[in-house]
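Thread title: Can someone regenerate the structure for this chain?

I was given the following input by a collaborator and told the matching structure tokens would be attached. They weren't. Posting the sequence so someone can regenerate them.
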Amino acid sequence: MGKRFQLLQGNEAVVEGGIAAGMKFYAGYPITPSTEIAERSALRLPQVGGKFIQMEDEIGGIAAALGASVAGLKSMTATSGPGFSLKQENIGYAAIAEIPIVIVDVQREGPSTGLPTSPSQGDLMQSKWGTHGDHPVIVISPSSVQECYTEAVRAFNMAERFRVPVIFLMDEIIGHLREGCELIPPEELEISDRRVDRSFNGTLAYAVQEGNYVPEYAPFGEGDKFNVTGLFHDLDGFPTNDNNITDTQERRLLDKIRMRRDRIQKWEEVDCEDCETLIVCFGGTARAVQGAMEDAKDMDFVKIGMFRPITVWPFPEEALLKVIKENKHLRQIIVAEHNDGQMLLEVQRIVEGRVPVDFLGKIDGTTITPTDVIDKVKEVY
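Best answer:
Regenerated them for you:
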């Protein structure tokens, strides 16, 4: 694109970050408020030797992206609302078959069709638990256009390193926000490409080296012959009903995330050391919290700190607990989010009554404002 700095929407920056990470394939179906991702992918991918295809529906979109990924291409799809629900079965397929893919969900308000153009963060729990069964997943949530770029790169890196579906959990606020964005060249970024291990002669696609959790099979079509299935399978990919194999495989799928949390989790702490009120938030809600923090300083008001998970799953619970234990001034925690209290449940579990936890949420299609945050602090302080 030529210019290192551009004025972009969050939705546009995601595409640029994906291309910087090596994305070569996008398949999807247009849906508000994520449509700009498909539009920009259609424009940009042919310019870098990639492929864009608009499928007949949301299920076809993720299925095509999974097929391209199995064949070796870094692939992405994007959606919102009911489209995210439709993709859940194939997210589970990606998890058990260990197919790297990035799925962008630009959240909107309400179940079903809801309010297609209004902001929400109501898919937080769905992003972790949406597909059935115990399964590995990584979920990343940006709060600026710049992070849409840099965290999209990290999303592709995580997908490739761990061979998992990575959910890029945006919201309408960030998707349609327009800000300056530095398009950092790939040579200045950490880019992870898929590891391939041919020491098993290509027949045991799902074998792993001792001490490892991630198989390193070659792209389909490169000569190695193996089966790809959504059933529990043996090391060559063929279905099995062996309970011991099932147990071993399921635990390895979960452990490749659980045992590598330190390489996955990312969060931001602002003024957490000596704040009296700690606000836990993510995604677009952080914009209002940042504004409230500035207003509080101007008002000589209660000192407010912010803890913001960037990787929301696995949740950085050890980091939050450390903040709570080390801050002797902390009097209250407020969880702010555009839903009816989904991250609230996680924070309450972690805090275990050490500090009072209160909640600020909206589910009417409007946004939380800095004034709302200040008013909530006053109410519970």
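The CA atoms of residues 134 and 251 lie 9 Å apart.
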